[in-house]
């Protein structure tokens, strides 16, 4: 018997970070059932990067850190598949997993919160805010500008950069596993400096 919350997992070849949107096409019975269950219970599901295996067929082995995906919209593709638009919410750490008869992986998890007492952006990371503003101007042209106060939030700034920069999935996964938003920004800054140098 465990008191840990449980979450169905959707292992993918991608990393979902908090606040980021992800479009999915659902066709396997186990995931169609999962979506129905999430809809009935008003809950999300976990997205984890695949460590070993594939997105379809035999259950893949997921990494131990992921992000809760909350369904924002759904519809049907021209091929008749279920399409979902989900958004990353909370990070979690997998404690143990079990596989249902359908092949759906269910995990006992612990939620992970940012550890910093203050998430206010530090002066040494101001360059990253300027970079993020420029990226958003390019990708969000014509959209509503984010609240200026968000750019002073180290966690929000770090997650938006993790979402939008051309990082490998392994690099994104490292950022996802960090509990300190300032350490996350420093890692991004060090990586950019290394690219320039």
UniProtKB/TrEMBL annotation:
- Pfam families recorded: LON_substr_bdg
- Protein name (record): LON peptidase substrate-binding domain-containing protein
**Domain of life of the organism encoding this protein:** Bacteria
Residue span, Lon N-terminal domain: 4-196
Taxonomic lineage: Bacteria, Pseudomonadati, Pseudomonadota, Gammaproteobacteria, Lysobacterales
